[in-house]
Structure formats: structure tokens, C-alpha cells
């Protein structure tokens, strides 16, 4: 079963997940819905709703052949969590949405140094570089860039994902879509460079 990206939890979901984790670690199997309900003074249907939410958010996985029905999704040594900060335009600039929630990504997308975050792409201006609408891009946080690097840029019009070019001091942000034009920003703040891509299968 393929793991879904993790999303933030409500306080009750976090408490139930902690209980399931402790219970499973000690006994080798998950608690029943009745035990979860008794622990938190909630009905079995309500306990079931919380468990389904934890499955949907990627913290539990359904086990068809186990009597308790679920098991924990363990974060493997080959994955790491980084914050998902919202949307980034690969089209016309848009305002960034900063509502962090963690997602798990392969460790080989990043190095051991630096700070990283993820953004979901909106638009197709980078499609010729293989970056499509709804892809998730992994960004290394930094304030400078070299010619030809794909960056997260904040301009007077908002945030956008484009290729950085500096030709004799003239800055441009170039799309990778032959139907779109370059952006020549009056104001520019570099928020990071593109280092990896995640595409969720449907």
C-alpha cells in the first residue's frame, strides 16, 4: 500500500495516535475501537471516524488480515519530514499561502545541510522542465541564486516559480513554456531554489 502524505492533526487525533502508538509498541497490535472509545470517553462510531481520519492523513494503514484492522505507518530511515508551506505559481504570480503542515519526502532529495520546505505548484509555466500543475516542489531555503537555477521568487506581483537569469545586471524570471513571456521584476526577493519534485499518483 502506497503511503499518503502526512497532514496536520487535531488535538484529539494526535492523542488517539499517541495512544495507538504506545499500545501497539507494547503489545504488537493496535487497540480495538472499543478500547479507544473507553480511553477517551467517546462512542465506537466516533472512535472509528478518528481512525479513518488518521488513515486518510497517512498515519495509519488499513490491514485487511488483522483483527484490529489497522497498523502504524512508520517513517523509514529513507524519508524525512519537511513543512508544506502552501501554493506557488507556475503561471502568473500569486500570493504565497503559509499554513505549514508536514509531508514526508525521500531523504535523497535533500542534503544534510540547509533548511528545506515544500510547495504545491499551481499552473503550467514550468511544464517544459517537467514541473506540472499540482506537483509538489522541494525548495532549499536561500536568498541568492546562480544563473539558470529555478527559484522561488517574491516580486511586486507576488510569489512565483521561475528560472533566474542575470544578464549584465538585468534580472529576468523565465518560464519554461513557449507560450509565456519572461517577467522583468522591479522588486525581487529570492526565497529558495528548486531541488526536487514529487508527483502524487492518482
TrEMBL record:
What is the scientific name of the source organism?
Answer: Candidatus Roizmanbacteria bacterium RIFCSPHIGHO2_02_FULL_38_11
- Report domain Peptidase S24/S26A/S26B/S26C positions: 83-194
Membrane-spanning intervals of the chain: none
Task: Report the EC code(s) recorded for this entry.
Answer: 3.4.21.88
Annotated catalytic residues: 125 (for autocatalytic cleavage activity), 162 (for autocatalytic cleavage activity)
A GO MF term: DNA binding
Name of the protein in its database record: LexA repressor
Pfam families per UniProt: LexA_DNA_bind (PF01726), Peptidase_S24 (PF00717)
Q: How does it assemble?
A: Homodimer.
Q: Which InterPro entries match?
A: LexA, LexA-like, LexA/Signal_pep-like_sf, LexA_DNA-bd_dom, LexA_repressor, Peptidase_S24_LexA, Peptidase_S24_S26A/B/C, WH-like_DNA-bd_sf
Amino acid at each position: 500500500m502506497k503511503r499518503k502524505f502526512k497532514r496536520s492533526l487535531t488535538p484529539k487525533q494526535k492523542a488517539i495516535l499517541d495512544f495507538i502508538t504506545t499500545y501497539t509498541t507494547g503489545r504488537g497490535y493496535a487497540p480495538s475501537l472499543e478500547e479507544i472509545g473507553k480511553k477517551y470517553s467517546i462512542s465506537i462510531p466516533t472512535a472509528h471516524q478518528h481512525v479513518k481520519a488518521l488513515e486518510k492523513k497517512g498515519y495509519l494503514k488499513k490491514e485487511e488480515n488483522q483483527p484490529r484492522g489497522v497498523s502504524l505507518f512508520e517513517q523509514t530511515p529513507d524519508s524525512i519530514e519537511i513543512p508544506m508551506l502552501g501554493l506557488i505559481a507556475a503561471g502568473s504570480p500569486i500570493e504565497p499561502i503559509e499554513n505549514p503542515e508536514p509531508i514526508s519526502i525521500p531523504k535523497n532529495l535533500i542534503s544534510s545541510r540547509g533548511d528545506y520546505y515544500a510547495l504545491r505548484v499551481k499552473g503550467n509555466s514550468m511544464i517544459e522542465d517537467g514541473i506540472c500543475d499540482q506537483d509538489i516542489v522541494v525548495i532549499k531555503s536561500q536568498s541568492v541564486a546562480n544563473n539558470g537555477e529555478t527559484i522561488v521568487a517574491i516580486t511586486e506581483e507576488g510569489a512565483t516559480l521561475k528560472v533566474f537569469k542575470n544578464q549584465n545586471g538585468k534580472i529576468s524570471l523565465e518560464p519554461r513554456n513557449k507560450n509565456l513571456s519572461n517577467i522583468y521584476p522591479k522588486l525581487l526577493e529570492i526565497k529558495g531554489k528548486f531541488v526536487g519534485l514529487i508527483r502524487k499518483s492518482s
